[in-house]
């Protein structure tokens, strides 16, 4: 991801004044860059910041339609900043103490400052996206990319608001879940693919394909994330085992099991949460295992991943970039972290 990390970092370190210094400290902590040796190189910084799925998707989509990667770098950096703004706020809403194995921003600086840090990260995204000296793409396409990203942010917020509203103890239908994650996760991956293709010079037909490709990829990504949130290895995911269950988070395996389990099973799943005992957590996971919730979730993620690729059928794409895109998406379908 040449250039993306440097662009993000350069805008963060420019924050100044007493408040700016505090914001800079919080943002660098969230991204893990306060703990990275500055001489270790971009890949070390990227590893600390996370998987960088969205910027990779943006740049590879640009290359796939025959564009120059440099044209997509500002959008890729902006998308990653927006993703991280949502994570900072998400940790507050979910009461998650850790992020990527480190204390969450709000846990160290409090909720109010966590909100400020997320707001700042969001604002920097548009500074990166619209900065004239960073631009190599056509101005009209850059303006259109800004509109795409703005709409995606609104959909992301819709999805997050719906997710929080669903934590009221009532059962959630599969359609309701899929609509929620389509906004919360699908929208930003869709924007990453579409803006990358747009800045690479794609026509409207190709843009439609990349938009749908990114959306379905996002839904598959979230379903896989739900599986890892229950059965994942905490050492790899950086999240506590069973954390999604204890928070009563709207998770696809639970949604599917509640619609099909026996009364006793549904009771066990509804009771887990908050200060539940390890026994209650184990009982809930046993229910999910017994009804095959994990297997069904993995099958749906694989099916949605295949549908994502069907959106690109018939498009003339650069073979090397297309191969890189496929490797990235296949990693997402089977990832363990």
Total E-strand runs: 2
Number of helices: 17
CA-atom Rg in angstroms:
20 Å
Let me know the average pLDDT.
88
Shape estimate: globular
Q: How large a portion of the residues is in β-strands, by DSSP E?
A: under 5%
Measured between the Cα atoms of the first and last residue, the distance is 19 Å
Major sheet attributes: 2 strands, antiparallel
Structure class: mainly alpha
Multimer state: single chain
> Percent of residues in helical segments?
over 70%
Poorly predicted runs of 5 or more residues: 37-41
Strand order, largest beta sheet: 1-2
Order of helices and strands: HHHHHEEHHHHHHHHHHHH
Provide a compact summary of the structure.
With 337 residues, the protein is mostly helical.
Helix/strand layout:
Layout: H1 4-13, H2 17-31, H3 42-49, H4 53-64, H5 69-94, E1 98-99, E2 102-103, H6 105-109, H7 111-130, H8 139-165, H9 174-199, H10 204-231, H11 234-237, H12 243-246, H13 252-260, H14 263-271, H15 278-291, H16 293-310, H17 319-334
Antiparallel strand pairs: 1-2
Helix pairs in contact: 1-5, 1-7, 2-7, 4-5, 4-9, 4-17, 5-7, 5-8, 5-9, 8-9, 9-10, 10-16, 10-17, 13-16, 14-15
Task: Describe the protein's architecture and organization.
About 1% of the residues have low confidence. The protein has 17 helices and two strands. 44% of the residues are buried. It is mostly helical and 337 residues long.
How would you describe this structure in keywords?
337 residues, 1% strand, 17 helices, two-stranded antiparallel ribbon, 2 strands
């Amino acid at each position: 991801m040449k250039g993306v990390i440097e662009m993000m970092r350069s805008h963060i370190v420019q924050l100044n004044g007493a408040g700016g210094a505090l914001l800079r400290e919080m943002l660098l902590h969230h991204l893990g860059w306060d703990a990275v040796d500055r001489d270790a190189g971009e890949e070390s910084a990227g590893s600390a910041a996370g998987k960088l799925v969205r910027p990779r998707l943006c740049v590879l989509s640009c290359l796939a339609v025959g564009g120059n990667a440099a044209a997509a770098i500002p959008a890729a950096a902006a998308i990653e900043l927006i993703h991280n703004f949502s994570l900072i706020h998400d940790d507050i809403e979910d009461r998650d103490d850790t992020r990527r194995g480190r204390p969450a921003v709000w846990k160290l600086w409090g909720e109010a400052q966590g909100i400020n840090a997320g707001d700042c990260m969001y604002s920097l995204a548009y500074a990166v996206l619209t900065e004239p000296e960073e631009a190599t793409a056509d101005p009209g396409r850059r303006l259109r990319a800004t509109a795409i990203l703005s709409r995606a942010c609104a959909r992301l917020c819709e999805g997050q608001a719906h997710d929080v509203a669903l934590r009221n103890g009532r059962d959630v239908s599969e359609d309701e879940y899929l609509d929620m994650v389509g906004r919360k996760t699908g929208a930003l991956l869709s924007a990453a693919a579409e803006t990358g293709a747009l800045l690479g010079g794609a026509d409207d037909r190709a843009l439609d394909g990349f938009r749908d490709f990114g959306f379905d990829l996002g839904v598959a990504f979230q379903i896989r994330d739900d599986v890892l949130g229950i059965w994942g290895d905490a050492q790899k995911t950086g999240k506590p085992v069973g954390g999604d269950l204890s928070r009563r988070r709207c998770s696809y395996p639970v949604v599917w099991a509640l619609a099909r389990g026996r009364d006793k099973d549904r009771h066990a799943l509804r009771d887990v949460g908050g200060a539940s005992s390890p026994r209650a957590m184990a009982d809930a996971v046993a229910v999910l295992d017994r009804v095959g919730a994990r297997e069904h979730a993995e099958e749906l993620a694989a099916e949605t991943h295949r549908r994502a690729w069907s959106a690109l059928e018939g498009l003339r794409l650069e073979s090397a970039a297309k191969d890189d895109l496929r490797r990235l998406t296949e990693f997402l379908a089977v990832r363990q972290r």
